[in-house]
Amino acid sequence: MLLHGLGATGEVWRDVVRDWPGSWLVPDLPGHGRSPRIERYSFGSLAAEVARVVPREPVTVVGHSLGGVVGLALASGWFGVDVTTCVGVGIKVRWTDEELEKAAALAARPAKVFPTREEAVERASRTAGVPIEHGVSEVDGGWTTALDVRAFGVGRPDLPGLIMAAKARVVLAAGENDPMSPREHLEELVPAPVVLPGAGHNVHVESPSSLRLLLTERP
């Protein structure tokens, strides 16, 4: 199962699954893309909604950024999903009070309506950090991003607690040029994070083949 980051949609994994062996599941997170909005956004509520669509069989979860934190929550077993391996890519470890305040402000801001679909797609892509097409919807008066901006208020994840609770094999990785997830930050959580050469924050888009290596490596 592949879980995208904040503001994106499942379409960002298209180059990963193109040559993927076996079966795969790529949902849009709640409040993103084609998935419905939920009452309150927390890592637990996101994981609970995702768990509803996961078959009751062993699964490997690969999550990017926010999706990686949701994957760790699922790996706890609290939501009835049997996660065997959880790969978190580009998870932001350190959050300042200023960053959290900015995120909370974004969560409280009303969504902007654009006169054309193209303008809404441009805004959705800028928010996601990668090009996306399915992250917009038509509303009265024009087009807007499908993202429920309240998702920005999800808060700071308890990563040490989630990793301690995980019943699955946990792999943390990031591109060597990812400013949000540098090696020294990941080393606060796991002894040997995987650093992917030449990549930035969006490894799954920049270097999709490298993710297969993460799944085939063993400690």
UniProtKB/TrEMBL annotation:
InterPro entries: AB_hydrolase_1, AB_hydrolase_fold, AB_hydrolase_sf. Gene3D superfamilies: alpha/beta hydrolase (3.40.50.1820). PANTHER family: MONOACYLGLYCEROL LIPASE. Residues 2-208 form the AB hydrolase-1 domain. GO terms for molecular function: hydrolase activity. Pfam families: Abhydrolase_6. This is Lysophospholipase, alpha-beta hydrolase superfamily. Keywords: Hydrolase. It comes from Lentzea xinjiangensis.
